[in-house]
Amino acid sequence: MSETANLPPHPAIKGMRSTIFGIIGNILLAVIKGLAGFFGNSYALIADAIESTSDVFSSLIVLIGLKISTKPKDKNHPYGHGKAEPIVAIVVSLTLLGAAFTIAYQSVQEIATPHHTPAAFTLLVLVLVVAVKETLFRYVFKVGAEVQSTAVKTDAWHHRSDAITSVAAFIGISVALIFGKGYESADDWAALLASGIIAFNAYNLFRPALAEIMDEAPPENLEQDIRITAETVEGVIEVEKCFIRKMGFDYFVDLHVIVDGELTVREGHIIAHNVKDSLLKSELRIIDVLIHTEPNDTSVEQ
To answer: Of 35, 77, 205, 273, which alpha carbon lies 20 to 30 A from 287's?
Structure first.
């Protein structure tokens, strides 16, 4: 048996599996909510079905992006294809924003159009939807956090947004059923409110994806772990500078390490290699390290 057979699956594989699971769930829920909304006179449920349908397409985009991000580096992409992952996250957040505007527009139209009170059975459908979507959110988001994928976490928030619209719809339909005539459009107002929540979430998902594309510094604890790992290598006096960029699921690191200025070039080179090996073997998901060695101040003064 080869050694590669014992290696854990690439983080993107776990992300793709959770995304496929979400796609299947969204297809089933879109059909259920669409039928329940049509026969139960509830636009809030139809709005929910629209969002679930858009979630299917956005999840397919995530799936494609994750697949591209796993491609190895080549002549035209010396750092690999990892940036496909945050690009996909941006696209997905924009589709979520588009869905919010679509729901808002349709809700306003429905509010202005007299219609029947939603059927009571739609409440049972909504309870089922909220339970399923919240479960999907927790599962997919957990996977996204484990593999540190912005795209997967963005996809997870599609499920949470769907749950939010369903909760809003439940409240709106309940109001319409309890208060009767004159409150038929309560679920439409609920859908309008939910569209605002979805738009807000879309912005919150867009921001970290854009930050990743712009090579914003990762969390401080990661830099601290890198410094500690490097400084445990024999011959390293101190880590002066540490620059980190996230590329998909992995990190590229640039380090300036201070060594004894009396060492030969070969000795300094060996220390640099030992630092690189130590970081690559760590669990920090570092894929490449560029190291610059500098003499300590005492040696320079002498």
So the answer is: 205
Domain that holds residue 65: 3-213
The DSSP output letter for 210 is H
pLDDT of the residue at 277:
93
Residue 289 is given by DSSP the state E
Confidence of residue 30 (pLDDT cuts 50, 70, 90): confident
Angle at CA of residue 47, ends 46 and 48, nearest 5°:
90
Closest CA to 218 of 80, 84, 86, 67: 86
Q: Can you give the length of the chain in residues?
A: 302
Please indicate, yes or no, whether residues 18 and 84 belong to a single structural domain of this protein. Answer: yes
Q: Are residues 251 and 166 in the same domain?
A: no
> Residue 249 has which token pair?
């699921």
Strands in 250-259's sheet, in edge-to-edge order, are: 238-247, 250-259, 286-295
Strands 286-295 and 250-259: parallel
φ/ψ of residue 163, rounded to 5: -65, -40
Is this model's pTM higher than 0.90 or not?
no
For 57, the token pair is: 């397409």
Determine the pLDDT at residue 226.
93
Q: Are 17 and 9 in contact (CB under 8 A)?
A: no
Please count the structural domains in the chain.
Answer: 2
Instruction: Compute the half-sphere exposure of residue 199: CA atoms within 13 Å on the CB side of its CA.
Output: 13
Identify the domain boundary among 161, 195, 213: 213
Q: How far apart are CA 51 and CA 63, in angstroms?
A: 18
Q: Is the Cβ–Cβ distance between 170 and 123 less than 8 Å?
A: yes
In angstroms, rounded to a whole number, what is the distance separating the alpha carbons of residues 220 and 238?
17
The per-residue pLDDT for range 181-228, each reduced to its tens digit, is 777 777 778 778 878 887 888 888 788 888 888 888 777 888 999 999
Name the nearest CA neighbour of 173 among 36, 35, 27.
Answer: 36
Q: With 50 as the cut, is the pLDDT of residue 299 above it?
A: no
